[in-house]
Amino acid sequence: MLRISQLSFLLAAAASLLSTASGESFLVQIKLNSNSLGRRQANPITAQGVLESHLKDVAKIAQGGEASSNSNFRITGQFDGLGDTFVIGNFVGYSAEFSPSLAESVKALPGVSRVLPNSQVTTHQTGCIARPVDPDPLSGEWGLGRISHFQNTPDPYMATHNTYRFHPNSQCSNTTIYVLDSGISRNHPEFTGRTIRWGYQAVSTWAQDDTCGHGTHIAGIAAGRNYGVQSSSQLVAIKALDGPPGDRCTGSWSGVISGLIWAAEDARTRGILARSVLLMSLGGSWNQIVNDAVDNVVDAGLTVVVSAGNSAEDACLGSPASAKKVITVGNVNLNDEVSWSSNTGCCVDIFAPGEEIASAHLNNGYARLSGTSMAAPFVAGMVLYNKCMHGYTTPVQDKVAVTTKENVIRGKITQGDSIGLCTEDPVNPSNGECEPGVGGGCAPNRILYNRC
């Protein structure tokens, strides 16, 4: 990710880019010159040059055409709201506050692909109340039991729901999960014996901790000591959301995109892309800029697992659930019914347990939460499980395994009160009609399974 301080032509202007702009916040996506790139992926130098040239054009408009020709020009007036800049693969863009008139002028500039709202992003949990649970390893673990048994016996006292079966070779320690959420409580006993690395943080004034509990909870489901699918993985906290204790966490698309690109670059420089997964149990309204950013992160080699959303509607109407290259997860309850709030439709790839799921929470405690937020970390944990068991190294291998190959129970889900579920498990559940932002088709009838 290229931030303001990394763009040499903006060094002198960076101090003035903090707060004086008035207007709405937008995301801007810039096209790269297809003639100069051909079929090749953009390199950072090419991308930086495209970004520099565009920002100079915007500065001229913002200053009435009076921008300096000096590469260290000052940006003043309405363009003081320039925020993060994004470069990964063939994705180039930035966030900024524009007045309505400036936004329209930016849309009209050559090379601008899209200008869309930098909207609010929220977690995908249902309700805001966390119910305390006993931290006993056998308490509230029906989800772990369900993903490790082919047959379902919907009784919490039966072995299918209070016993987690896993292969010993699945618990290797050289895998990493990036949790892009509200942070992780690093001293929680659920993660004893492992150092949680603190990564990117969208807002510098936020506490370097999980103040609302959501990130800690999903981290525990994916990789907790008692409640985790893959309890030996290393964890990296990326804080793009924040909020009061026990409440719904919120953030912005720009913070999410910055966190995504930071994770991909961090995994690349550390040489761990092939052994890593990124988890996002969050979302907002459909945004193609966000989808393009996520897909470019996947193209860079980092597998991304996301929650489908909890609006009881088509997941294709939201982002990042509608991104084409992610693994999108809906949730089911104890009876293998699609949960009443779970989004469905053809953008969903797999279902996993998501009601009354126990995991780590605030104040070193534990809680049961519900939503597709809780289902997605089961799948993220399974991606790491497979990397240990089978040596998978690419996002394509990871997605095939958890959606069509090793980790699927087919045709067992009942629809309940939901809509948009296939009665069987067709090879192409969308019948060719699946379109992000539009939807259509049905969700495949597949429950996550570790085949132990």
Automatic annotation (TrEMBL):
Keywords: Hydrolase, Protease, Serine protease, Signal. InterPro entries: PCSK9_ProteinaseK-like (IPR034193), Peptidase_S8/S53_dom (IPR000209), Peptidase_S8/S53_dom_sf (IPR036852), Peptidase_S8_Asp-AS (IPR023827), Peptidase_S8_His-AS (IPR022398), Peptidase_S8_Ser-AS (IPR023828), Peptidase_S8_subtilisin-like (IPR050131), Peptidase_S8_subtilisin-rel (IPR015500). Residues 1-23 form the signal peptide. The keyword Transmembrane does not apply. Residues 52-124 form the Inhibitor I9 domain. One of its GO terms (molecular function) is serine-type endopeptidase activity. GO terms for biological process: proteolysis. Residues 174-397 form the Peptidase S8/S53 domain. The active site is at D181 (charge relay system), H214 (charge relay system), S373 (charge relay system). Transmembrane segments: none annotated. SUPFAM superfamilies: Subtilisin-like. Belongs to the peptidase S8 family. PANTHER family: CEREVISIN-RELATED, PEPTIDASE S8. This is Subtilisin-like protein. It comes from Ascodesmis nigricans.
